[in-house]
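Researcher: Can you fold this with MU-OXO-diiron in place?
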Amino acid sequence: MISDKLQKALNGQIAAELWSSNLYLQMSFFLKHEGWDGSACWMAHQAEEERGHALKMAGYLLSRGGAANIQATDAVPQDWGSVLEIFEHTYEHECKVSSMINSIVALAIEEKDYAAENFLRGFVDEQVEEEETASAIVDRLRKAGEAGLLFVDAELGKRK
Ligand code: FEO
């Protein structure tokens, strides 16, 4: 049985993952509207991935006898100045998520819930990947500049 404290923290993280999903979906809509179809496709996949994280956490909570719930989430930003700005925002957001996950891991250790710690460590690894991916895209976009944007956009559209 999972502790009330961890249950609360996990439900908070579920809300954060769903907010991330909404953020990336809004980015996808915005990018599509601006004609950046490849980047829009990449973001749509990212939105699905975040929803998957929320579902995985809810499934875990339920498997440990806890209650999963969906909390109200704040509205997400609606527009950005450029494709680069969107991916910079993505990178900053993922760094924030990493620190949230780290806090829950610390709580699991404090509660001596090593099963939850094990489960959450998967997300620690996931965050390393998420930060690296977003940072690499930012780097590519900076190097490409205006002239190479179409090429990078086409590359991002290959995400499956
Ligand atoms: Fe689920 Fe990108 O953190």
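Model: Folded with MU-OXO-diiron in place. The chain has a mean pLDDT of 97.
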